[in-house]
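TASK: fixed-backbone design
INPUT:
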C-alpha cells in the first residue's frame, strides 16, 4: 500500500517511495529508500517538496490519527514482483505471461517518460555548463553550488533510467560538443559507478567530477578548440595543457572535492603510461580517473566534432576494446555492461533480414534489447517502424551483426529510436 502524506508527518523508519511534486525540487540522489538518517529527514522537510509517497509494506506506517492525502495499491510493484517471484504450480502460464507483459509495458512507459524529462534537462544543463565556461574565460570563479545542482539532477535522471539521458546526449552537433560533452561524461560516470557497485556518495562524486573534467578547455583558444582539421604539434601541445589548467581553475574556485580534482587532472592518463599530463601508469591512476578516461573517450568518438562525424555506439565499443594499454580492462567491461553490447541508437541486422535500431536495453540479456525495424534487406524498402522486444517469450529473432549507419544513409535514425521529432537531423546539419 502506498500513501501520500505531508512532509510534516514523515518519520524515521518510513520507506520513501517517491516525492510528490517537481522532480527538480527534492535534493536526493535516490527516489526510493528507507529513511533511517535524521539528516535525510531534515533535508526532506527543508526541501520544496510538500508531500511524499511512502510504502507501508516496506517501512513504518503513519498513526491512525494522521490525515492521508491519498492511498493506493502498487500495481507496478506487484507486477514487477510477479515477474521475479518463483513460479507457483497454481499460477497458470497465461497469468505469468500477463504479469511479464504488464511489467514490461510499465518499464517501457517509464523509459519514454524519462526521455522527455532528459530532453528538458539537457537544455538547462547545457546552458549551465556554457555559463561556467564563459565565467572561466572572463576570469570569474566557477559557481560550485550551481554545478553541484546540475550534477545532482543528471544523477537523478540516471537513477531513474540510465539509458534515456545517455542516449540523448550522444546526439549533439559539433557546435554543442564542448558543453554537452561535460554533461555526457557526468551521466556516463554515474552509470559506470552504479555498474561497479560504488556507494551512492561515490556515484554522485563521480558525476560531479565528470561534469567538471574538461573545464580547462575554457583556456584553449576557440580557433584551436574548434579547428576543423588536424592540429599542428604546437596546437596539440596547447590542448595537452587543459587538464592542468582545469585543475588550477577548480582549486582557484575553492573546489576541494578530491575526485573532481583528480579526474580533471588525470582523465587523459593511460594504463600503459602513455597518457598525459603526468605519464601515470596502472594503479598509480586512481579508480575515478580510470573511469573518467573511458567515459571521456567514448563520448568523444561517438559525437559529431568539427573535424569528423561521430562513430556508431556499438562500433565505438568494438574499437575501444582493441586499444590495448589504454583503459583499465575491468572498468571497460563494466562500462560496456552499463551501456549494453548494442547501445541505444545502434543499427543492427536481424535474423529475418531486416535492419533495426536499438531503442532500449534488456538488463537481463544484453544480446536481446528492444529494437525498432527500419528497413527490409529483401526489398530494400523502408519499413513503418515496428517495436520488437527480442527477449519476449516466443520471439525467435536474433541480432546477427552490427551495421554501419553511414552505409545505409537513414537520416531519421535518431528520430526513430527516440520518438523525438527532428532529433539527429539538426546535429547532422540535415
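OUTPUT:
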Amino acid at each position: 500500500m502506498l500513501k501520500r502524506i505531508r512532509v510534516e508527518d514523515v518519520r524515521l523508519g518510513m520507506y520513501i517511495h517517491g516525492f510528490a511534486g517537481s522532480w527538480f525540487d527534492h535534493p536526493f540522489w535516490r527516489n526510493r529508500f528507507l529513511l533511517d538518517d535524521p539528516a535525510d529527514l531534515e533535508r526532506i522537510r527543508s526541501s520544496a517538496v510538500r508531500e511524499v509517497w511512502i510504502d507501508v509494506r516496506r517501512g513504518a506506517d503513519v498513526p491512525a490519527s494522521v490525515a492521508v492525502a491519498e492511498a493506493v495499491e502498487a500495481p507496478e510493484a506487484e507486477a514487477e514482483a510477479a515477474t521475479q517471484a518463483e513460479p507457483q504450480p497454481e499460477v497458470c502460464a497465461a497469468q505469468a505471461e500477463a504479469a511479464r507483459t504488464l511489467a514490461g509495458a510499465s518499464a517501457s512507459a517509464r523509459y519514454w517518460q524519462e526521455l522527455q524529462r532528459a530532453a528538458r534537462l539537457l537544455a538547462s544543463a547545457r546552458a549551465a555548463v556554457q555559463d561556467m565556461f564563459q565565467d572561466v574565460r572572463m576570469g570569474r570563479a566557477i559557481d560550485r553550488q550551481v554545478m553541484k545542482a546540475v550534477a545532482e539532477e543528471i544523477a537523478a535522471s540516471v537513477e531513474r533510467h540510465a539509458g534515456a539521458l545517455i542516449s540523448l546526449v550522444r546526439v549533439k552537433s559539433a557546435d554543442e560538443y564542448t558543453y554537452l560533452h561535460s554533461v555526457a561524461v557526468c551521466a556516463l560516470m554515474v552509470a559506470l559507478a552504479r555498474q561497479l557497485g560504488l556507494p551512492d556518495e561515490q556515484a554522485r562524486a563521480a558525476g560531479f567530477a565528470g561534469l567538471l573534467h574538461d573545464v580547462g578547455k575554457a583556456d584553449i583558444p576557440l580557433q584551436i578548440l574548434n579547428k576543423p582539421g588536424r592540429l599542428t604539434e604546437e596546437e596539440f601541445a596547447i590542448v595537452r595543457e587543459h587538464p592542468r589548467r582545469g585543475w588550477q581553475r577548480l582549486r582557484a574556485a575553492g573546489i576541494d572535492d578530491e575526485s573532481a580534482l583528480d579526474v580533471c587532472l588525470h582523465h587523459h592518463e593511460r594504463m600503459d603510461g602513455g597518457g598525459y599530463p603526468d605519464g601515470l601508469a596502472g594503479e598509480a591512476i586512481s579508480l575515478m580517473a580510470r573511469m573518467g578516461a573511458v567515459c571521456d573517450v567514448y563520448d568523444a568518438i561517438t559525437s559529431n566534432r568539427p573535424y569528423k562525424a561521430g562513430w556508431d555506439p556499438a562500433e565505438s565499443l568494438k574499437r575501444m576494446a582493441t586499444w590495448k594499454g589504454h583503459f583499465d580492462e575491468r572498468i571497460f567491461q563494466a562500462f560496456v555492461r552499463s551501456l549494453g553490447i548494442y547501445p541505444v541508437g545502434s543499427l543492427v541486422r536481424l535474423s529475418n533480414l531486416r535492419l533495426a535500431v536499438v531503442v532500449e536495453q534488456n538488463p537481463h540479456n544484453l544480446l536481446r534489447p528492444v529494437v525498432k525495424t527500419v528497413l527490409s534487406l529483401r526489398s530494400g524498402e523502408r519499413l513503418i517502424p515496428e517495436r520488437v522486444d527480442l527477449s519476449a517469450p516466443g520471439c525467435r529473432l536474433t541480432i546477427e551483426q552490427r551495421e554501419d549507419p553511414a552505409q545505409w544513409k537513414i537520416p531519421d535514425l535518431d528520430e526513430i529510436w527516440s520518438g523525438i521529432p527532428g532529433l539527429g537531423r539538426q546535429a547532422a546539419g540535415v
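COMMENT: Residues 70 and 410 are 48 Å apart (CA to CA).
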